[in-house]
Amino acid sequence: MLKNNEFVRWMPTFLLGICIAIFCSIIVPTIPMLVPAKLMGTGFGLMEMLQNLALGVFPLISGVLRESAHNDKKGFHLQTLFFFVISCICTGVCLILKSVDVTSGCKLDVKDFRKKYIQKLLSEEEHRTVR
Hints:
mainly alpha
């Protein structure tokens, strides 16, 4: 019954886009909140390295899945399923990050974080120049 349903065909792709958008919009802003200012460049560099690694490796895995199938429909189904599973993993990581944040004191869910962060950096800079 579900094999020929159009909903089943486009739903994983739709959810993939939503999950990737949520993942990227959550992970990138957390770097300044979790990484000390001295290591900020390293934090962003590691994040970009992992993202580029995924952008390089996942198409290869997708191609292997596509070529391993004996008919066209099964190959595209495996590709879509692979990307859907990856997007579910990303969403799960976001939910885990949120739950860890809530249990550890809500570092990530701070109102006016940028303002407080800039004030903290300025006070540290003043403290260094006074010494």
